[in-house]
Amino acid sequence: MTAELVRGQNHPLSQLRLEIRISAGSPVLAGATLADENGTVRGPRRVAHPGAPALPGVEVPRQAATEHRLTVDLSAVPEAVHRVGVFLALPTGTTGPLRFGAVPAPHTTVHGPAGTELARYTVTGLDTETAVVALELYRRHGAWKIRAMGQGYADGLPALLADQGLPEADALAGVIHATTNTGPAAAHDTHRAGRTPHESPAPADVPAPGGPIDYSHPRRPRDTAPPAPTAAPAADGQPAPPVAGDATGWSMEERLYNQVWGMFEDLTRTTAAYRGAVDFADTRLERELDEALADPRARLGDGNTAAREAARARRDQLAEQARAALDRDLAQLTAESEVVEPALPPAYARWDSPAWHGYRVPTEPPMALRLGELHLPESLPLRIPLLVRLPLEHGLWIDSGATAMPEGSFADSAALRQAAMEVAVVLAARLLAAHPAGEFAVRVVDPAGTGTRALRPLTGAGVLAAPPATGAAGVTEALERLTRRVDLVQMAVRGGAAGALPDDVDTARQLLIVNDFPHGFDDRAITRLRYLADEGPAVGVHLLLVADRADAAAYGPLLDPLWRSLTRLTPVPDEHVADPWVGHAWTYEPTLAPVGSRIVEQVLGEIATALIKHK
């Protein structure tokens, strides 16, 4: 059965040798990009286009036309290739249309070796775009899937290529357009030699400076991609069972980090496909009902009633098919989560993970830290860990104000403020546990002393760099100390004398927890806090603010830059986190220790012992 895809929807591929047919209302050029797991195209020789139509496993047409056929052999693409993107672009320098919105929507179909149609997708919703990524074939757990993309670019082919990490995008786009405009005679010699895609010489992996940030280990060789563990395909042709660390990376920690983000993206896109399909079904039902009621003479007849019932049945069938596809993907992601969660290192793991019971102070910090969990309404009970890179690029803000809490969660604002401070303490403990002894220090500003009870795990273990600062004088002294540290470290770094800092300057990274902000802060103290938020992260000073924004309403827009510079978290589940791919509103939930557990205190005890030895 042919899968009718909507934008964002994916579908498993039962065949590896494919023919992709494209039909457009106006001549377009077609090509393909071969990208790694992060979506980065490693150089111009990873792009199949009319001037170089044949790459390993891929062959594209040699000129612009209204009808195209691309051949793909996924078993022949290089091991480093995890994504094959099929793009279309309007030719330049012609009398043809200037934008896709002025021509009929391009239609794509994917066929197997015997000509069986596997999937189809019509690229709708384009307007000013002159280039578009229509389809993406991507590898996941050893199996290949197809995704309907429909990602358009008003700035044309240069923007499309640049978005995939090609620094020489403008030059390559010019070559592609020039080759297309000169006709088929300019086709690459490789094609004229009659090579099939899997016979073409493999292109070199050309680095792509200026593309997405490369987080690989700085002291590891980078000329080849690290291997990722893979599971053997199931004998019945089904996707291989999930494996912890099934992603690229130089270490298991990095592989797990990349795998968690891959799960995050997969859940984002499969939910988008489900919502898009249901929205399409509802829109079509509304249109069909309007058409059925348009003729006044037929509104009350039996035929009209049957037409309405048939329209509702078609809507329900589409919604059920979309839900079945979502449930299939959720089952796969849930199985993956059940394998990945127990394998996560302490910095990534929940507090009830066995990894914490064998905790020992690390000799080097991890690459990321778990701030909580994310989920969507359709995905429960599946939750995705929210991992952020270390060192923190932005401060954190635990919002102790009113939020859309579940009924009966908290009786009053005092309980919510207490819960916010408890989340701050747990995050501080996690940050301390992630760093070697003496390389991370926690300081607290609690002007009114309202956080005393929540701070007991930190104060009782003796892991704070100094007793909590209270009162206006304590606020001033703590901010002056950290502001001076930021100033001195900045001057030392700029002057190339990082080792010449005064003896009283603590060179460890600093976390400043501020409770009940802006209570106890005057204008000067607020200015210093904003300075620490802006300049501190670059030199190892980080903020963790526990505050209700409504308490600072008297300052008006003065504090708006401060709130925007911080990552907002909540002490209770709250729908406020947006993913970077589709923009879903995800529900954030803090990661707390199980009720009655003393694992946080045990970990802090290990840290305290290590700090004593370090001194």
Notable traits:
single chain, 615 residues, alpha+beta, 12-stranded mixed beta sheet, 5-stranded parallel beta sheet
Characterization of the model:
The protein has twelve helices and 21 strands. It has 615 residues and is of the alpha+beta class. Strands 1, 2, 3, 4, 5, 6, 7, 8, 9, 10, 11 and 12 form a twelve-stranded mixed sheet that branches. The protein has a five-stranded parallel sheet with strand order 16-17-18-15-19, sandwiched between helices. Strand 11 and strand 12 form a beta hairpin.
Mass-distribution shape:
globular
Helical coverage, percent range: 25-40%
Radius of gyration: 28 Å
Low-pLDDT stretches: 182-233
Calculate the terminal CA-CA distance, rounded to whole Å.
69 Å
Mean pLDDT score, rounded? 85
The structural class is alpha+beta
Number of strands: 21
Put simply, the count of helices is: 12
Sheet of most strands: 12 strands, mixed
Q: How big a fraction of the residues is strand?
A: 15-25%
SSE diagram, text form:
Elements: E1 3-4, E2 10-12, E3 17-35, E4 47-48, E5 54-55, E6 58-59, E7 65-73, E8 83-89, E9 107-111, E10 117-122, E11 131-140, E12 143-153, H1 156-163, H2 169-182, H3 189-192, H4 252-293, H5 302-340, H6 354-357, E13 368-375, E14 384-389, E15 395-399, H7 413-434, E16 440-445, H8 456-461, H9 471-494, E17 509-517, H10 523-535, E18 541-547, H11 560-565, E19 566-569, E20 574-578, E21 585-589, H12 599-614
Parallel strand pairs: 1-10, 15-18, 15-19, 16-17, 17-18
Antiparallel strand pairs: 2-12, 3-4, 3-7, 3-8, 3-9, 5-6, 6-7, 8-11, 9-10, 11-12, 13-14, 13-21, 20-21
Helix pairs in contact: 1-2, 4-5, 7-12, 9-10
